[in-house]
Design goal:
Blueprint lengths: L1 H11 L23 E3 L1 H5 L6 H5 L5 E4 L2 E4 L7 E5 L2 E2 L14 E7 L13 E7 L7 E10 L2 E14 L2 E26 L2 E28 L5 E25 L7 E22 L5 E22 L5 E26 L3 E24 L5 E25 L2 E18 L2 E20 L5 E11 L3 H4 L3 E2 L11 E3 L7 E14 L3 E13 L2 E8 L2 E8 L3 E16 L2 E16 L15 E11 L2 E10 L2 E4 L5 E5 L2 E11 L4 E8 L6 E8 L5 E8 L4 E9 L1
Parallel strand pairs: 4-7, 22-26
Antiparallel strand pairs: 1-6, 2-3, 4-5, 6-7, 8-9, 8-37, 9-10, 10-11, 10-36, 11-12, 12-13, 13-14, 14-15, 15-16, 16-17, 17-18, 18-19, 19-20, 20-23, 21-22, 23-24, 24-27, 25-26, 27-28, 28-29, 29-30, 30-33, 31-32, 32-35, 33-34, 34-37, 35-36
Amino acid sequence: MLLLSSLSFVAAQEEAPARVEVKGAAGREDGAPARRVVGRAEIAAYGDGNLADVLRRQGGVSVVGSEVRMRGLGSGYTQILVDGELVPQGFMIDAISPELVERIEIARSPTADRSAQAVAGSINIVLRKRGGTRREDKVSNGFQRGEWSPSVSAQAGGKRGDLSWTMGTTFDRSVRIDGIRTDETVEGAAGMQAARRFTEAGRARSNRFNLAPRLNWAFDNGDTLGWNLLAGLMRARGATGEREETLLGEATAYPASFATVAQRGTTLRSDLAWAHRFAGAGKITVKAVADGSRQRNAYLFLGTAADGAPGLARVVASGAQERTASLNGKYLAPFGAAHSLGLGWDASRTTRAEQRNQTDSFAGAAGSVRLQDYTARVERLALFAQDEWTISDAFEGYAGLRWEGLRTGTDGADLARVASTSSVASPVLQLLWKLPAKQQLRLALARTYKAPLTRNLVPRRYTINNNNGPANPDVEGNPALRPELSWGIDLAWERPLGQAGSASLSAYARRIDAVTTLQLYRDGASWVQRPVNNGEAEAAGIELDLKSPLSVGPLAFALRLNAARNWSRVRSVPGPDNTLAEQVPFTLNAGIDYRAGMWDAGANLNVRGGAASRSMDGAAIYYRGRVALLDLYWTRKLDAGWRMRIGVANALGRGQRSGTAWRDSGGNAVTRMLDWEGMASIRVGIERAL
């Protein structure tokens, strides 16, 4: 039940165009460490209901499901930060409403003052602090296939004496409608044995509420104290029905089935930050962060046999709790006229507990019970030093060294404790060379790593309800996973185009040790898939980014184009298609924006190339098809601060394709291809800023 599986995964953790800026770590434009900034206007332009849709329109960024990828790599290769702090593993980008976000910072190379878990790069989501207005209200409603998705948000702020405050709140109701067709063939040494077509229809509704208060004190001695809170509540229900058409051979055990899921989730993130400036020079900041989430799921599967008799009735009650506490600090001070030095630390502890109670009964007989209870812990300590300096008028540099120690442990009711300890020293070097005509060359070298996802350390097995096989296996974690270590180099050439345009060409290369691949094996009568460390891999790519104004008579347009090509190879996996983590090989973003007095309009085409990767032994190939999405928006200024906004997502209604093909040395083969129906959606909103 793909809709319900996707929904369960989510529960476990969905004006004028903004100017792109390049800033250094110390806030200086054109500094050696570079990042690209997506401003508030661009975030709001299309009226998106979730942050993933905002990110997939950014150059070099792709979104697969709710997983955000840079350089085509996700699953922990891309680091996600909120207000500069590493989010808990398993964090879903859709947990934050776009209305709560002030800007998004995209960095392709790491700096020593942030976690080195950024093999592909990092994305920092900066929450709104103080807007240009004291109050902002928005009401919108989306429509898709007869279902409405209303959304309400409000932002307010003020100041009284030394205290300034803001309050943001959002509520939205979303509906997900899935139509999925699955074609499966089974071959033996003697030829075709079975051919089946599964048709699944599902619908899920979710309600989400976010609250984000923020308090800031500015004291007479120059000290500042800030407190932030981000709280979220989620409730969801979904149901799917699936029917099988047997074209050849025998039907599966349950050719007709029905499933429901009910979910509840809460998230809470709070931080307290203190900053002090010394009389001579220098500044120290200390921040404490507490983060927690809790999910509860109730699942029911009813399978019907080919003769219409009741088959499997599976009831699953499951839950997960994740808690993170961290404390970090940083001291910055100038050294001479050309250097800015920094020292700091970062310590955190994450605990994830999962429980699963599964009861199976067949044809009304007494049920069998399977209990699973696991706890995984990840402890991290980091120390760093950095120096950003001006070598000459045309040459700037940044150097840093970060040491991170990592300790993981997993235990459970039926599992002896498994623990591992590792550490990595991460040197970082970034150089900026300023050329004539405002051109720039950038070079970055860095050591990074990818820690195992907490959920992948838990050996809890997610069982397939019907038709388990090599192309449709059960999935479980691996408590013996180790971190992946990477050396990387980045090169970039940048230049302005006129007054408001820019062009850049960049390239990167990575060498990754202890890379994670998927192992497919048989456990009794069941096929199971789990992640394992498996040798070395290389990844490389190039990216072109263009932005330029265009005038056609009295009409003024803003054009943007970003194209990226990625390659990778896992040495220990036989080719072809021995790529890394289903890396997206090609992304394209092409957009146009137009402003005419009281109204703005724009369009963006996002294309993601098809991807393929193999299992550890090369027997299974995992496919993801090409995706092309066209988004449109139109805004109209009214009066007294009012504005109307209309956005259309996936205007072409394009679907998606994925699948698995497995073949062994004896001539046995199973192919399973899934076609997801595509749907356009429209959202209309009214905004007021006072």
